[in-house]
Specification:
Bound molecules: nicotinamide-adenine-dinucleotide, UDP-4-deoxy-4-formamido-beta-L-arabinopyranose
Helix content: 40-55%
Structural class: alpha/beta
Distance between the termini: 35 Å
Strand content: 15-25%
Number of strands: 13
Shape: globular
Length: 338
Amino acid sequence: MSKGRILVTGGCGYIGSHTIVDLIENGYEVVAVDNLSNADESVLKGIAEITGVNVKNHVVDLAEREATIRLFQEEAFTGVIHFAALKHVGESVDQPIRYYQNNLNSLLNVIEGMQETGCQHLIFSSSCSVYGNTDELPVTEKTPRQSAESPYGRTKQMCEDILFDVCKISPDFQGVLLRYFNPAGAHPSCLIGEAPSNPASNLAPVITETAIGKRKEMMVFGNDYNTSDGSCVRDYIHVVDLAHAHTLALDYLRENRQASNCELFNLGIGTGVSVLEAIHAFEEVTGVRLNYRIGDRRAGDVVAIYANADKAGRELGWQPKYNIKDIMKTAWAWEQKR
Ligand code: NAD
Ligand code: WQD
């Protein structure tokens, strides 16, 4: 018997598609909604090959209120995982209104659709970007949020605030906010991975695109920071580990184990990895030499950030299995295949 019927918004995207696989493998029934602004439906074939299940995707823009409410009225969901958002930090600086419109309206419409149809469980994709430039390392869920470095980061802070307010006045509404650190890597089957319609800017795809020759060279954005080797430090988390945390979060709500109706969790592996260490990990596991140069610092980069994710271990039973080498190995296998 199914553990529940889950709407996965942004289900054709990178983290959404890996989460759908994990949900199906753990007994959930899934319906996707994605307006295909940064994905295409071919990912559903990969999901079907891995799981044997054909997932339906509704092509709906969740920033459109009527269409979103209609979707909720047409289908009965027991829970929602809300991934759908625009996510490019640099682009958000140039197009703030588009980011606020898309990311805020889609969350508001999803909440309204849930409330109209009595759906009470929501898992929301937040981000370590809500911590801004913090000195407190590793960051825990109690580390105060600083001013966000970009409109994108600000949309995540505002979405969190919307959910805090909704939970305060709606005791039946159960929200779990997951703050992801730096997701990377691909499903070991190589049938799904990161396949954005927009040009990649995150480190792992930039590395694999350089290695395969799509880019002539890549830049390391600064080697004069106050870190062990001068490059910035991040907490890279394998997308398969990240995906599983969503299943565990739904189980946690289903089993009513939450201490409050709005719980926050950091999702990172708790290890800081520098840009140069990530590059060397890639070279070591693949045997491919990367053509990289040291460039200027990138505006808005925080120097170092990594998670304390003990709460997710303790309360969700989440134990990440993969490290930076596994991330690079699977990201490279996926790049070669796609
Ligand atoms: P993604 O772009 O691959 O997936 C998001 C999907 O949402 C896309 O397929 C896009 O087409 C869809 N979408 C966007 N706006 C929509 C709308 N209005 N209506 C319907 N569909 C819409 O991104 P991802 O990396 O899978 O990220 C998923 C979530 O996780 C996002 O909320 C993102 O902000 C958050 N997040 C991502 C990272 C990361 O580095 N990848 C880190 C922290 C948080
Ligand atoms: C990682 C490191 C770069 C590309 C962003 C968002 C964050 C979250 C994750 C969504 C940095 C360096 C990168 C390159 C490089 N996303 N780098 N050369 O900036 O840590 O986080 O994605 O919520 O909110 O801000 O990720 O992958 O862009 O960069 O040297 O060509 O790699 O300077 O130190 P970032 P990233």
